[in-house]
């Protein structure tokens, strides 16, 4: 096992997939010499050259659409949307074209496209550089969505995404790029639709995605002191979603907290809560708690942003609510 | 004297136009009789554009089409039977009845789909050209679109990207001077869409879309330029939409005199007389018409007799199957 | 009370608001002489002239963005997105600009913008002209969202939307345009955030939006025969959402079915189920049922589309499941 | 001989440039000292553009800005204290600390906001111009944007719409030949963005962005054209970005010699000597510099002393209050 940052893990996945398959190339804004706004692709230009590490004009619709057309005709592009907040410039090519072409054409082609989209706040980047929009894409049949929460999954899920013949969006968490984790030396893949049992526990199930996984683990340690045992599950991909693993855990604990950074209303926590409420109805001992950002655009001032975004304390409070639930 | 096509090509162009015209006339009639569900946008009056352009293309070349896509499908080598069955929404259609008129496609013919999102085909054709350049294939990408589509951001981003990367793509603007009911002067101040080529420093060419031979030679030059590494071209064909925007449109908004004049300027009739004047025997033309009519009759019969899709297959073809183990 | 179609009710609301306030104007594609693709604005050009009934080029980003800037500077535009599927061309101006400007600027301006967006399928219009995307917008703080299910609400909600100083999206249902209903002669407004008790009942609460309200009423009549009494609630606006009325009803019936036409996963049914599961935990006697489209792009063939989309039979089946729930 | 500005205007231009330069220099220093959170894109080197353009505008005129917006804010009459407090994320900032550097705005000054979405300001300024034309106001809209932004679809759709409707708007392209790290030749083949005006049949003007007097007169002509009903203009100012794209960028990708030459071509130094040569006493210039420095010192003090926003207000300002009863 090597220890590396989440950023380096993503870069390794890109490097390995570029080495593995000539059809794979990178396309995005400032990803070449500059290494991307978040420096994830730094160094790849020297290794693979401008033909495979392609800087584009600022044209999200054009570059994602070109990636769709290129994927439809035999290449396997990996596109970067510099910040997921910018999807608004190119949604049509993602949800009407990439996601639907295979179906509309009766299964006559595939779109082996990977879109990397850094997400999330906590950097005082304000309302246009801090959003988590995964719920939009989970609502669109035809897409797959991965949300790596650590270096290992960042590499393994991205490699799987590139091999997958369907359009996949990988939401990388900006706050995790500098976080180190163990990553195997030898190539590996993380399957989609297989949740990870991050921490075994008996009292409350916490389903968390992206950086809420770490916050949940922090909460778990704090709560251990009070003798409360959390089982933490990271779905890793939300489309497909491994609901079985979640259901099994809830049948054991009888209590569920779902945690994501995106704002509460219409977030993926609603879908997970709805499915668990349906499938584990007789096992739930308390209402399902959702930990999420308060419904608001993301403010600039750190003190305001902290007020809006969820963290370990919010998980702890939610766990106490389900534990103390008297009905 | 002017360049002339060989008699062989001349007849090919004639047959393509006749095929489109007769197919569309049949479709109009069948739609009126309730045989075809959904929207119907016909290509009647614009046949010379698809014919003149596609006569320069191989099956390897990739085209993207529009909501008005039957003409492109037929010109790219589409069969009447599978096309008609698709319009009927039958299981035997090109796309199993999942696409219909606005999404008819056949990747094996290099037809990447009619598209019900205006201008969405431009980035996709650009991507097909990117694959050709990237993987060293010798196909070109061709995007058909209308004057109205030239006001979409996707048009701008596509041409700029193709120009920066010198991609092998031809952008064919079918300028019928209407976007649904909106006349050109209401949606753009310029008289010729071709002038927009200057914004990308690429060639912009205007051709009489009712002169199939002129379209053929202009397209030939653009396609050869693309194929030989000369980069993209914006080719504007001045044409006329004979029927309503779709079959529910009575065109009350059109200038009758202008419209009448256009109707008299029938590309097929004109080309017929040119061929005759060049010594093509009437029998040859009649034979083509008969052959096309026979094929059309059989196609309608095929569509009529074909089974409806099985509801059990409604959700097939959304995702391409993928087994990680298989890697 | 006058009896008129949903379409005529929308038109009346537009007419009254245009008459009421000089700052109000209509902006959209083919909305003038053509009366809009769905004929909602037919006749308004003659009444109010081209300055107030403004035809635009096909430029969704441009026209919605111009409407945002115009609303920010003292006008009160009513924009039409011809089909809500086209939001993909303009999302940024809706969710990053219109929805966030007031907040980002510390409350220093308002965006009194109304966006009318026809939604829904059942017309064999296939994957690009049939979607219901309300869940995307419900997830965006700063927007309000109305979903009129009948002529009365179509008029009353739209008039309120135009008066509201915030950006409001009104999703009109294409299949309801020709449905007649009673509408008061005198001007009236339907408040946002106030659900309508469409039908009183005692056994099961059905929360339905848009055309699922009528399907639910049909189901209610059918079920009455079997002695099952449905209480049907139409939230009318999903942002703000009148959750109180829903909770009260569920506390009475102990059973809930949520019905919408959008596909299941990530639809607004998830949010409503999550909230009710949380707030009425001890009152629920059965798992909350969600009636929705199966997760799939919308197919063209009527027989396939019918298979994908929900109707009264799906509501009936869901009601039976909650009634028969044994645990 | 060439047109010359009056001494009064000459000093106004000088003061505006000095105000921007000193403000930005202070901000760079404060950012390095950790006083300012988030991203920081400075306007140093481009002062003559904002100054030359805004000197032609009244408080009624509306501008939209970019991620690089301090210069526009200051040139449009922004106060140092409230601007600095906003960058600090303080409650006393122009936007209560909710916007920060990338969203600073003051509608009362006709400053409709910095914008962190590239090119998003163009449709909004177009809309401000639409309001002026529609409501008969005599303000003009001005959109500042970069060369990189000219590749976004929003640019294309905005200019086309403004041209069709002959709107009173000026599109000011600040061409510093870089889009983040991407040099002009990598993002567009054209050498001058102004040529794109031909795609809309509107005037395209190129001016030396380091000659504040030239910018002033070119902008004057464009603004007067707009105000007098002559329609939109695309005004391109050739300029140079002195610092990194943002403060975390060391510009390793830049040609050192070229860059050095640019630095020596300092618009402020040049204008200073012009003013002196025209008989303006040095004392006057010194007095301006002193005054600006005093105001800046006070502004920093104000920002330092100002309170942080109250977390309780984090979710204020999302919606404008609205009471239906109040209608
Ligand atoms: C993004 C988008 N906007 C609007 C429409 C509705 N629409 C369909 S065709 C059309 C007119 C297209 O005009 P043009 O590009 O000139 O093609 P033509 O119909 O004349 O062949 C419009 C507005 C659409 N399908 N997609
Ligand atoms: C839609 C969108 N795409 C990309 C970005 C990231 N980004 C911010 S500034 C910038 C470069 C802008 O270049 P230009 O328009 O020339 O302005 P300049 O920074 O040179 O002033 C980019 C790519 C963004 N903020 N928004
Ligand atoms: Mg047209
Ligand atoms: Mg620039």
Question: What structural keywords apply?
Answer:
heterotetramer; A: 327 residues; alpha/beta; five-stranded mixed β-sheet; 12 helices; B: 327 residues; 7 strands; globular; binds thiamine diphosphate; binds magnesium ion
Distance between the termini of chain A: 48 Å
Number of helices of chain A: 12
Strand order of the largest sheet of chain B: 1-2-3-7-6
Reported for the largest beta sheet of chain A, the result is: 7 strands, mixed
Radius of gyration of chain A: 20 Å
What can you see in these coordinates?
The complex is a heterotetramer, with two copies of chain A (327 residues) and two copies of chain B (327 residues). Chain A has 327 residues and is α/β, with parallel strands linked by helices. Chain A has helices at residues 6-20, 44-48, 60-71, 91-98, 101-104, 134-138, 151-163, 212-225, 243-253, 268-279, 302-308, 312-324; strands spanning 2-5, 24-28, 53-55, 76-80, 114-119, 144-146, 168-173, 180-183, 196-199, 204-208, 230-234, 237-239, 256-263, 289-293. In chain A, helix 1 packs parallel to helix 7, helix 3 packs parallel to helix 4 and helix 9 (243-253) crosses helix 10 (268-279). Chain A is globular, with a radius of gyration of 20 Å. By secondary structure, chain B is of the alpha/beta class. Chain B contains eleven helices and seven strands. In chain B, the strands form two sheets. A five-stranded parallel beta sheet of chain B has the order 1-2-3-7-6, sandwiched between helices. A two-stranded antiparallel ribbon of chain B has the order 4-5. In chain B, helix 6 links the parallel strand 2 and strand 3 (169-175). The model of chain B has no long low-confidence stretch (mean pLDDT 97). The chains are: A alpha/beta (327), B alpha/beta (327). Chains A and C meet through helix 4, helix 6 and helix 10 of A and helix 4, helix 6 and helix 10 of C. The site of one magnesium ion has 6 residues of chain D, from strand 4. Residues 146-148, 176, 178-179 of chain B line the site of one magnesium ion (MG).
């Amino acid at each position: 096992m090597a220890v590396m940052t989440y950023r380096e893990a993503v870069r390794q996945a890109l490097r390995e997939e570029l080495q593995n398959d000539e059809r794979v190339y990178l396309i995005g804004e400032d990803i070449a010499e500059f290494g991307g706004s978040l420096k994830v692709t730094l160094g790849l230009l020297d290794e693979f050259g401008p033909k495979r590490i392609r800087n584009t004009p600022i044209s999200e619709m054009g570059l994602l659409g070109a990636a769709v057309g290129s994927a439809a005709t035999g290449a396997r592009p990996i596109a970067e949307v510099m910040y997921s907040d910018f999807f608004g410039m190119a949604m049509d090519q993602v949800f009407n074209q990439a996601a639907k072409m295979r179906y509309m054409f009766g299964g006559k082609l595939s779109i082996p496209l990977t879109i990397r989209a850094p997400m999330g706040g906590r950097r005082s980047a304000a309302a246009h550089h801090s959003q988590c929009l995964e719920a939009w894409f989970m609502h669109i049949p035809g897409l797959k969505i991965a949300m790596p929460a650590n270096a290992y999954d960042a590499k393994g899920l991205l490699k799987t995404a590139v091999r997958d013949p369907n359009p996949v969006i990988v939401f990388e968490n900006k706050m995790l790029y500098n976080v180190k984790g163990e990553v195997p030396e030898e190539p590996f893949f993380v399957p989609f639709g297989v949740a990870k049992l991050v921490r075994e526990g008996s009292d409350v199930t916490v389903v968390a995605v992206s950086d809420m996984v770490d916050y949940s683990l922090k909460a778990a340690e704090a709560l251990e002191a009070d003798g409360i045992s959390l089982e933490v599950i990271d779905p890793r991909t939300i489309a497909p979603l491994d609901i079985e693993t979640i259901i099994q855990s809830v049948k054991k604990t009888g209590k569920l907290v779902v945690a994501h950074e995106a704002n509460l209303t219409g977030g993926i926590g609603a879908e997970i809560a709805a499915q668990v409420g349906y499938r584990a109805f007789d096992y739930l001992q308390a209402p399902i708690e959702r930990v999420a950002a308060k419904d608001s655009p993301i403010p600039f001032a750190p003190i305001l942003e902290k007020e809006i975004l969820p963290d370990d304390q919010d998980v702890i409070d939610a766990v106490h609510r389900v534990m103390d639930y008297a009905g | 004297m002017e360049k002339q096509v060989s008699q062989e090509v001349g007849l090919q162009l004639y047959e393509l136009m006749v095929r489109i015209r007769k197919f569309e006339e049949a479709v109009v009639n069948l739609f009126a009789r309730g045989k075809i569900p959904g929207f119907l946008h016909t290509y009647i009056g614009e046949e010379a554009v698809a014919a003149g352009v596609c006569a320069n293309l191989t099956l390897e070349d990739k085209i993207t089409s529009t909501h008005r896509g039957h003409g492109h499908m037929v010109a790219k080598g589409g069969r009447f039977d599978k096309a008609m069955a698709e319009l009927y929404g039958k299981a035997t259609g090109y796309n199993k009845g999942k696409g219909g008129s606005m999404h008819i496609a056949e990747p094996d013919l290099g037809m990447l789909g009619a598209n019900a999102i205006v201008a969405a085909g431009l980035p996709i054709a650009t991507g097909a050209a990117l694959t050709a350049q990237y993987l060293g294939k010798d196909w070109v990408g061709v995007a058909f679109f209308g004057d109205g589509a030239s006001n979409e951001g996707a048009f701008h981003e596509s041409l700029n990207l193709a120009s920066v990367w010198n991609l092998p793509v031809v952008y064919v603007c079918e300028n019928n001077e209407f976007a649904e009911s909106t006349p050109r002067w209401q949606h753009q101040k310029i008289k010729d869409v071709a002038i927009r080529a200057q914004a990308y420093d690429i060639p912009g060419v205007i051709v009489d879309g009712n002169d199939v031979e002129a379209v053929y030679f202009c397209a030939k030059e653009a396609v050869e330029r693309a194929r030989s590494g000369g980069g993209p071209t914006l080719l504007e064909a001045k044409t006329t939409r004979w029927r309503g925007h779709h079959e529910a449109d009575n065109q009350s908004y059109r200038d009758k005199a202008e419209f009448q004049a256009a109707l008299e300027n029938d590309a097929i009739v004109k080309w017929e007389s040119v061929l005759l004047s060049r010594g093509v025997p009437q029998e040859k033309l009649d034979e083509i018409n008969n052959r096309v009519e026979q094929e059309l009759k059989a196609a309608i019969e095929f569509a009529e007799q074909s089974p409806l899709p099985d509801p059990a297959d409604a959700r097939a073809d959304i995702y391409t199957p993928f087994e990680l183990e298989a890697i």
